[in-house]
Amino acid sequence: MNLNLVDKHQSTIDTAVRALHERTFFAHYPENPSPDVYGEHADKEGREKYKAHLNQKFEELLQQDPEAWVGQEESPYEQQPLGVKYPFFSPETLVSRAEEAYHQWRKVKPADRAAILVESLERLRTRFFEIAYATMHTTGQAYMMSFQASGPHAADRALEAVAAGFEEQTRFPEAAAWEKPMGKYNLKLNKTWRAVPKGVSLVIGCATFPTWNTVPGMYASLVTGNPVIIKPHPKAVLPIAIVVAAVQKVLQENGLNPDICQLGVDADDHLITKDLAEHPKVKLIDYTGGTEFGNYIESLPGKTTFTEKTGVNSIILDSVDDIDKVAQNLAFSVTLYSGQMCTAPQNFFVPAGGVKAGGETVPYAQVVQKIADAVTALVNNPKAGPHILGAIQNPATAARVKDAASLKGKEVLSTCEFQHPMFANARTCTPVIYEVDATEKESYSRELFGPIVLVIKTRDTAQSIQIAKEMAQNYGAISCGAYTTDPDVKEQIMDEMGLAGTPVSFNLTGGIYVNQNASFSDFHVTGGNPAGNASFTNPEFVIKRFTWVGFREPAAG
Amino acid sequence: MNLNLVDKHQSTIDTAVRALHERTFFAHYPENPSPDVYGEHADKEGREKYKAHLNQKFEELLQQDPEAWVGQEESPYEQQPLGVKYPFFSPETLVSRAEEAYHQWRKVKPADRAAILVESLERLRTRFFEIAYATMHTTGQAYMMSFQASGPHAADRALEAVAAGFEEQTRFPEAAAWEKPMGKYNLKLNKTWRAVPKGVSLVIGCATFPTWNTVPGMYASLVTGNPVIIKPHPKAVLPIAIVVAAVQKVLQENGLNPDICQLGVDADDHLITKDLAEHPKVKLIDYTGGTEFGNYIESLPGKTTFTEKTGVNSIILDSVDDIDKVAQNLAFSVTLYSGQMCTAPQNFFVPAGGVKAGGETVPYAQVVQKIADAVTALVNNPKAGPHILGAIQNPATAARVKDAASLKGKEVLSTCEFQHPMFANARTCTPVIYEVDATEKESYSRELFGPIVLVIKTRDTAQSIQIAKEMAQNYGAISCGAYTTDPDVKEQIMDEMGLAGTPVSFNLTGGIYVNQNASFSDFHVTGGNPAGNASFTNPEFVIKRFTWVGFREPAAG
Question: SUPFAM superfamilies, from UniProt (chains A, B) (predicted)?
Answer without folding.
Answer: ALDH-like
